[in-house]
Amino acid sequence: MDTTQPASTGWLAARVAAALGLMISFYALALGIAVGLLYLAYLDISVAERVHGKVVLFCLVGAGSVLWAIVPRPDRFEAPGPRVHPADEPELFRTLEEVAAATAQAMPAEVYFVNDVNAFVTQRGGVMGLGSRRVMGLGLPLMQALTIQEFKGVLAHEFGHYSSGDVGLGPWIYKTRGAIGRTIEHLADNILQKIFIWYGSLFLRITHAISRRQEFVADAVAARTVGPGVMMSALRKVRGAAMAFDGYWHGELGAVIGSGYLPPLSQGFARFLKAEPVATRVRSIIAEAEKSDQTDPCDTHPALGERLTALAALGTGGAIDDRPASALLTNVQKWERRVLASVVNDEWARGLKSVEWDKVAEAVYLPMWQQRIKDHGHLLRGRTIATVPHAPDEFVRLGLATRKQDDEEITNEAAFGRAWHLLIAAIALPLVEMGWRASALPGEEVILHREAQEFRPYTELSAVVNNEVVPGWWNDRCRALGIADVPMDGGAAAAV
User: Fold this and answer.
1) Contact in structure between 457 and 477 (CB atoms under 8 Å)
2) Within 10 Å of residue 339's Cβ, how many Cβ atoms?
3) What 3-state class would DSSP assign to 438?
4) Distance between CA atoms of 276 and 437, rounded to whole angstroms?
5) Tell me: the pLDDT tens digits for 307-332?
């Protein structure tokens, strides 16, 4: 497959003909079945000596379901996020115009920010693509994960879908998929439904194959615009960052936002990606994806390995601009709040208090620790940090003891996790009361600092629980830090 040149006129014509042929065939099949059913009902009523009520009902209901399912629906477009105008972000739009000119494409009519490591273009509005307008979505997390030049590559890829006619054809394919789905849904489990399931599977396999070819063509457009090496780097980063974003959103932000605070989202995601545990995992994900050159027939995108191989055949050049693409924006935090409001609730998002990441431990985690010790500190009465439970079965017993009377039964694994939360609180809280400073930066565990001393309770206690250190190491470590005799059940500062 030649990806060094734009899609040829012949290939484009063949692709359009194939897609249109499939769509026309579906509607012809649906109409033919509906007309045939109606004709059978007519024959039964007008010709047969005795009307077969069940047969007539089956024919009428089946024909009505098919006809109703294939009626074209107007496209009711719902904004995927806050809309951004040229006056809001002039440098971003200058970049969009630069890439649009480089790919010989018109600018989209509307641009939106979305909460995703992704960018997309589409035609929205109208009926079956007629009367539609160009719409582009840009992920704020994407702009933090990529450099400006890589971001331009992604934009060029999206404009590449316009240049080869993919987006114009998309509404027809999308609407036909919807009509097939509605037809299957409206029909009962019978021979008619099986016919449309078979055709739907065929339609998806063929149109998804077309979509995968479109991705190669769009990649080639991006390679000509920013250089193959830049686009390869962008694809790798998008794959890794997309996998990491879910962990960041639910693991790092969940507790902070749930406590009524809003930290800098994009800045936090950048720190999350650079944290060593996360960076190591991301590199592993990208390496595994690069090895895969087998694409599932049901995928709309080729495997990462296939795309990188195709790009590598074009060369490795490209300009370098290490600034994050978010530098194109004048006020990232304003858009973060507006994107969050579009994802959840506008009034709730407006009520969130701003907090910097280096204050999250104090604002969010300290109250959590205080509540845990208030609820369950009595379970650790008589224990000091040096005598913290070490054995896994002790963790399970401690976790099970935190259950309340109206709690559901919990597994040993869940109890183990509860014990960890309680023990980290029981270690961190008294040390903070004694003047240690706690930090909980994105991608990092809770770390406690005092002057030149640093204490990582989760990692260091894990080493003990997993028998990765010699017996007595934990006790020696606590004595070296001067925290061995600190009680864990609350009131530590006063006791010491």
Assistant:
1) no
2) 24
3) strand
4) 21
5) 998 899 987 766 667 789 999 999 99
